[in-house]
Amino acid sequence: MWLLLQLSEASTASAVTFSLNGSTVAVDDHGASLLDVLREQLGCRSVKDGCSPQGQCGCCTVWVDGAPRVACVTAVRRVAGRSVTTVEGLDPALRARWAAAFVGTGASQCGFCTPGILLRLAALGQGNRPPSRHAVESALLAHLCRCTGWQSIVEAACIALGIPGPEPAALLASPEPAASPAPAAPDQSPPTERLLAAWRAQLEGRSPQGSGPDIVLGGGGFADDRAPEGALVQLGAAETPPAPSLAAARAAVTKVQGRNTTLPPTYPVDLPPGEWARTLQTTWVEPAYVEPDASWCVPGDLPASPLANGGAFGGKRRSPVPSRAAALARELGRPVRVLWSREDVVRYGAKRPPLALGLRADGTGVVRMGRTAGSPDLGRLRDRIREIAPGVAVEEVAIAGPLVSDELRGAGWVEVLAALNALPTRRPPMPEGSQEEGSQEGHSQEGHGRAEVSRPGAGRAIVTVDTQGGALGRGTVTAELWAGEPLHGVTLRSYVLGAVHQALGLVWTEGIAVDDDGAPVDLTIRSFGILAARDMPEVEVVLHESDRWPVNGSDAVFAATVAAAWMAEGFAPRWPTRRGAGRGGQGRGTIG
Fold it and tell me: Which segments within 159-309 are labelled E, that is strand?
């Protein structure tokens, strides 16, 4: 069957000639996208596939005749006779300037999204009109970055484009606040600095992670970027036989194109009966890591890890993709690639367990955790909740829906910790000068929340959320962190910013709809409710120096931000609290 398919393709193919990074190339046109031609035929792996063909994550952005275009929704025939530029084709000085700005501000963590972001933002500097911060944030609407929280990316763009603004810095308070020294240029960074940055990144992401200009430019070593030439390809979770190419594999499967739904979020776990001082229900939330699950395996060898340069917030720890690649390679005696589409990730990837909880004023109560058929045991989550809230009983409830996992960032215990912080008798005092300082009853102050989180063996964080004011009119967040020796202030600050962004999204806007049969129906990146750059408050990060052994700190920031953001929202009994506010500001449809 595959031979007939290839013969049919060959008989109808026509040649398309265009310029790629200054060199003329000719490729056969089988109706493929520019993205597939660049990656599969021309070996250009800096261009990433995060959602194709949705055209919504921006990871495959290239320049076509100097203007940014999303390659996954651009037919290759449309670039005939035109000039295509990837990060490799940028002027070396321009490329180095942007890479240095990203490294110097911590604007790249895993690095999967950054080549496309860099190209779109660098295009702002090629026009006749001086760029602005507003133009930067508007350009970022075409992209998804889950790691960095946007602020460091905006800062990097302002530096590279020469846009006036405050210099980004984490404050080191030990014992007197002082701005951290500016990092060395990426090609001059000493090995010790790179080692400390990698150490801090592994503590925060719980997976090995490198940094530097090669990461910014797409060289993070992602699984599908390193797949051997000629490997067979299997797509999705279906039991279809592997095909000789990606194009043939796509032709062999019936793909239901991702879409947004008009269905409202559901709250699948009922509140426990009782008289409660505080209640909370949560919906389904997509982890939204940007690199889809991917692996490959050569017979007799170990499969490639889908966690090449980052931890995916725990979302890929139990991914079935590596074991599937290994089994197929062993069975067929050939190298095999196994890839999930964005829709596959949403359908089959693990989600936070939806929950419902009720707490009494003394901190006792009940939390019900939803668990679906086939999901792993939630025993570790029960243990974590008992550790932080010994007076809270934990119940498991069988529900219909996608798989759930307790390995996702802060799953379950963060919600319980936020509810404990929400109790009038447990909330920390308001900052000096606030109207209800020391108040033990009701909501502390409209639009304001403050929470402190500390866990044994991990960091301590104090986060203040003010949803009103700020220089940009979007509110402010202050995140203060003690996490042992900072090791590398730029890296730690980047993770703190990312934790604040993810926590605000969890409380405010994030959620996907699931139908009555338990199938996710929000399958596009723009339906997840991820906060856009233009929706983020200004975040100030204060890092406290210490000679204690370094520990994870961003999880404490995540938990404290969740609690403070909920407080600022008046303890609305269901998350997300701002579901009607434009699904995170990302808009809908494809941005070119």
Answer: 171-173, 177-179, 232-235, 278-281, 294-297
